[in-house]
Amino acid sequence: MSNYNQNEMVAATRIIKDLTTKTPTLQAVFNQDAVNISSELDNLIKETDRLEHSWHAEVADTDPILEESKIVFAKYRDLVIKRLPGAAKMDWQETDVKPDVFALNLEKLIGIIEDNEDKLPFAETALAELVPISNKLDMELTEDREARRIYRNSVLAKNAALKKAEIFFYETRRFIRRDLGRKSPEYSQVKDKAVRKAAKELEQQGNETLTEKQVVTEESINS
């Protein structure tokens, strides 16, 4: 388990990048790696955040179709049970379940109606409604799963970058302590306390930027 959270690790890599840029002793040994690692971590964090929003947006797009599907499903489920009492014993009736499970229940209902068309006077009408909405829901859920898969892969890549950054940070910190001294100003910047302070400052800057964006948005709306 890392000693630092994500914000602290970002702050740590930026401190190292700054030190290796300004300190000749560190520049030749660490600067290029510091720049690359810091840039990679920043980019992966931004990409993971973007993909998380994309995934949530996909899920939000599915919600109206899911609700419509449940309404149609409930209507024909009740009609089927009235005509086929034995169907009530089958495990397919629930709507208040996870979307993937509901999609299976919807498919089971379609199968029951197809197998009993001669006993269900509403079968043709039901299938004309249920099949298209089932296909539409299936497409939406497939897109949701793909967005989730891509997001989860990005989380794995980000976590690997965080680990890589942590190893590099401690390697550089040991070098600074050994070659520049524990009392050096450079070493004071890479102590845990200094890193956590820098992380809080970064977080505060981020909050201020977000607030500024909100103000601009509100002004645009009101203008």
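[next item in queue]
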Amino acid sequence: MKTGAASNSVVLYWHRTDLRLHDSPALHAALALNPSVFIPIWTWDQHYVYKARVGPNRWKFLLECQSDLSRAYTKLNPKQKLHVVREGPQTILPKLWEHWGVTHLVFEKDTDAYARDRDNEVMRLAQKAGVEVIVKLGRTLFDPDEIVRKNNGKPTMSITQLEKAAVKINNGNPEKPLDPPKSIPDPWDDERMDLSNLKRDSIDSQPDLNVEHRTKKDEQYSDLMGPTRDFAVPWQDIGIDLSQAKTPHRGGEQEALRILGECIKNEDYIGRFEKPNTSPADFEPQSTTLLSPHLHFGSLSVRKFWWDVQGVMEKQRKAKKPVSTVPTNLPGQLLFRDMYFAAQAPLGHSFSHTYGNEVARFIDWHLQTNPPNQDGYIDGSYDVDSQEAEEWFQRWKDGRTGFPWIDALMRQLRQEGWIHHLGRHSVACFLTRGGCYVSWERGAEVFEELLIDRESSSSKQFRRELTKGW
């Protein structure tokens, strides 16, 4: 990282999937510019607020991650924090560039379908405004687009395809993690940071897919700086009563590093870990790491996870102790995660649906998603071709099937926002080919709402692993 006198750069650092300071390649690149002004922001995007299914547990986990990151910034520099700006990035960023005199926009790469469209539009606007954009990989072990190129331009449909592609990138070794910054430059002073004179764009809140959870007054877009006009993390004004969130799992970088540290201390557990031998019936302690939500929100670096585990496994090998292997060991689980990202990357929006998906096999499930409208938009509505199937779906969703194992898992999912992967297999199979013969897309929507570790890529294992719908 550069040292010495500050440059004339004014850097806007846009947090999205990287709510951490440790091992953040994009943050490292931003600080390497040696900016005179550094402003870390989160844009409170109405797409995720209203158009993505998010239950109270995931909202709470996100807010905990944001609050922890904001405190970490303040610890490094009392003038700093995470600045939450209440508008979508496509409209607010150009206004911020002009108002704050931004020279550089830096962020972590995101290959999710909506995110790619959003980022392409933001980069187009930045080029028009003369703002330099720097994008760095940090969400996955390997660049999903590069994996696709190494896989002959095709999505990765198996762990073998992922491994063969990855070995062509740095011999299959992810980059080593970076240290967290020791200092952070100042933002502008309060007067320059103030957004009172900026015009607010209208917010499209309809349809609101989370309306059932929004039991309080929705004030999250009342001011660009938030109702208290201090860029605060929106704990009180999103319209959702967070007392509904019953999950015992806590968000934030410090919590993620604590959990990882505890896992790493148990060297025999790390060395011998095999996912098929873990159990959804284990609770105290759980048989898996419970770090997947932190990987989703970026409060834990996947590269740090990988290399910390590799260090323990190498130590175990030298001690002549048993060491598990890919794909069932912990590194194998991280490779599976990369596999799903590289499966989604070339397919874009069609990956989330059967309709228009070149790698999905059509199966005549009940409750099929309705075709796209004239604008090509799939609104999530579905055809109730069988009232009996609709009743089965609702009972499955609420944990009222009468099958104790399925009901216990669905109630755990609703309360905690997390269930073991074998539990996920069980409930998904029951809904689809194992019992109800209901479309996997209905189950994926429930997972989207309730899981705190939900990834748009890997949650579609509803289709791949369980319904045989590829």
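[queue empty]
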